TrEMBL record, chain A:
<dbReference type="GO" id="GO:0016075">
    <property type="term" value="P:rRNA catabolic process"/>
</dbReference>
<dbReference type="InterPro" id="IPR027408">
    <property type="entry name" value="PNPase/RNase_PH_dom_sf"/>
</dbReference>
<feature type="domain" description="Exoribonuclease phosphorolytic">
    <location>
        <begin position="105"/>
        <end position="164"/>
    </location>
</feature>
<feature type="domain" description="Exoribonuclease phosphorolytic">
    <location>
        <begin position="3"/>
        <end position="100"/>
    </location>
</feature>
<dbReference type="GO" id="GO:0000176">
    <property type="term" value="C:nuclear exosome (RNase complex)"/>
</dbReference>
<dbReference type="InterPro" id="IPR015847">
    <property type="entry name" value="ExoRNase_PH_dom2"/>
</dbReference>
<dbReference type="GO" id="GO:0005730">
    <property type="term" value="C:nucleolus"/>
</dbReference>
<dbReference type="InterPro" id="IPR050080">
    <property type="entry name" value="RNase_PH"/>
</dbReference>
<dbReference type="Pfam" id="PF01138">
    <property type="entry name" value="RNase_PH"/>
</dbReference>
<dbReference type="GO" id="GO:0071028">
    <property type="term" value="P:nuclear mRNA surveillance"/>
</dbReference>
<dbReference type="Pfam" id="PF03725">
    <property type="entry name" value="RNase_PH_C"/>
</dbReference>
<keyword id="KW-0698">rRNA processing</keyword>
<keyword id="KW-0271">Exosome</keyword>
<dbReference type="GO" id="GO:0003723">
    <property type="term" value="F:RNA binding"/>
</dbReference>
<protein>
    <submittedName>
        <fullName>Exosome complex component RRP46</fullName>
    </submittedName>
</protein>
<dbReference type="InterPro" id="IPR001247">
    <property type="entry name" value="ExoRNase_PH_dom1"/>
</dbReference>
<dbReference type="GO" id="GO:0000177">
    <property type="term" value="C:cytoplasmic exosome (RNase complex)"/>
</dbReference>
Length: 192, 277
């Protein structure tokens, strides 16, 4: 949940897979994204593809050959941050499912106003007014390398680097949140 | 079969790696050189605009058909541009017959994003009569031969086809509510900007290859596409997953990409001019 954006993610797997999708050396990943309103169109299918390729880099797929891992994301409310809310929800769902990952990942969206101010986690209204919008997904390693990047709108290269830097700093908050939530979950389990 | 071909068939990974160790690719290109581009405009005579582009062996054809549609209620003075990419089994064994797969949909969405971000065409320019009639440009991009780098090839084909489009003049008589389409009087589209994309594939942390072939894409760990405008500003950056890369990943490519913008746009301009003659 980021501001007014709510995404619900669930993970099923590693489990049975159709013969046509069975891979001898790794798990088959499938992402299903449903928007809050309307049918699933090409925008949603493209989003599924991006999320799948991002998650593929984080999960240790080679540990589960001939299986399938299904990630289902339901967008409950959207206020402009569909991609980043979904990616973060997917990461938390994977952590909750206990699927082995080599890194956690965090998505941050920012937009840049005509005056050059970078706004992290903008609302839909702020995105409409902005000149460009960018979403980055970072790994939790030391140098926070970029897993996924998506930028729309027109901006100079220097502004792009500024956005990237601000998002990198903001991603640390997201990783801290993951840690807090996971600690809370296991603390409850230990106590009960 | 020569021993080199045997090596390539049975050990493709080590074959490829050996080339990279000498900073070359199997097709003898450097890691940062692009393939030659060949553009022919007006190849589909039944379409309002068309172009066929060859990037090495990758062949992509774009045909644009214009239809008159009713604008939406929310945007009554805007027309539509609908890019649609088809990857048929004829172009590569990777693609199966049936509804568009993940790659085709990703490409269609990419083309839509580029057209919207770059504001290539003002949707209001496609309007004929607000609330009643507007042009809807169906841009069908078909891959005829797949050898990597579909992002660049499809965008070049789309831009070249858009510059080849001639829309008939439509006049609307308010009193009689009749529209007359005059096919003899045709007008080209007013394109505000001409974006050009450059793709590179990440083989490892330190090795990146520009303009990947199908083999490069298979061996590599993901592609990054940069779309730039003529003034050097960034229009779209598309990195859908793939290997993670350091945050200064674009520093090396921004200059290469900028040079490519002028090269590609002048090639398209030449092809369009040739057609007019």
């Amino acid at each position: 949940m980021r501001g007014l954006n709510v995404a619900l993610a669930s993970v099923n797997g590693p489990g049975d897979v159709k013969v046509s999708n069975r891979l001898y050396n790794r798990s088959h990943l499938e992402v299903c994204y449903s928007p809050s309103t309307g049918h699933s169109m090409i925008r949603e299918r493209a989003l599924e593809s991006v999320i799948m390729r991002t998650v593929e880099q984080a999960i240790l797929v080679h540990l589960h050959p001939r299986t399938a891992i299904n990630i289902t994301i339901q967008e409950m409310q959207s206020d402009g941050l569909a991609l980043s809310a979904s990616v973060n929800a997917a990461c938390m769902a994977l952590l909750d499912a206990g699927i082995q990952m080599k890194t956690t990942f965090a998505a941050v969206t920012c937009c840049i106003t005509p005056s050059g101010t970078v706004i992290i986690d903008p609302t839909e209204a702020e995105i409409q007014e902005s000149v460009a919008e960018a979403t980055f997904v970072f790994e939790s390693s030391g140098e926070a390398s970029v897993l996924t990047a998506h930028q729309d709108g027109r901006l100079s290269y220097e502004d792009f680097k500024k956005c990237l830097h601000h998002c990198q700093v903001a991603s640390k908050d997201v990783f801290a949140f993951y840690r807090r939530m996971t600690e809370k979950k296991y603390q409850n389990e230990i106590e009960s | 079969m020569t021993s080199l071909q045997v090596w390539r068939t049975f050990e493709p990974d080590s074959y490829y790696k050996t080339f990279l160790e000498h900073s070359k690719r199997p097709d003898s290109r450097n890691l940062s050189s692009f393939r030659p581009i060949n553009i022919k405009v007006g190849t589909v005579t039944t379409a309002e605009g068309s172009a066929t582009v060859r990037l090495g062996h990758t062949t992509v054809m774009c045909g644009i058909k214009a239809e008159i549609a009713t604008p939406t209620l929310r945007h009554p003075d805007e027309g539509f541009v609908v890019p649609n990419v088809e990857l048929y089994p004829c172009c590569s064994p990777m693609f199966k017959a049936g509804p568009p797969g993940e790659r085709a949909i990703g490409l269609s969405q990419f083309l839509k994003n580029v057209i919207t971000s770059a504001e290539v065409l003002l949707p209001s320019d496609l309007c004929i009569v607000p609330n009643k009639f507007a042009w809807c440009l169906y841009c069908d991009v078909v891959c005829l031969n797949y050898d990597g780098n579909l992002y660049d090839a499809s965008l070049i084909a789309l831009m070249a086809a858009l510059q080849n489009v001639l829309l008939p003049e439509v006049s609307y008589d308010e009193e009689s509510e009749r529209t007359t389409v005059s096919p003899e009087k045709t007008l080209p589209l007013k394109l505000k900007r001409k974006p050009v994309s450059s793709t590179f594939t990440m083989y490892s942390e330190s090795i990146q290859l520009v303009d990947p072939t199908a083999e490069d894409e298979e061996q590599g760990g993901g592609e990054v596409t940069l779309v730039l405008l003529e003034d050097g500003s960034l229009c779209t950056i598309h990195k859908p997953g793939g290997h993670s890369i350091a945050s200064n990943f674009l520093d090396k490519f921004i200059d290469l990409a900028r040079k490519r913008v002028t090269l590609v746009n002048s090639a398209i301009h030449k092809a369009v001019a040739e057609r007019k003659v």
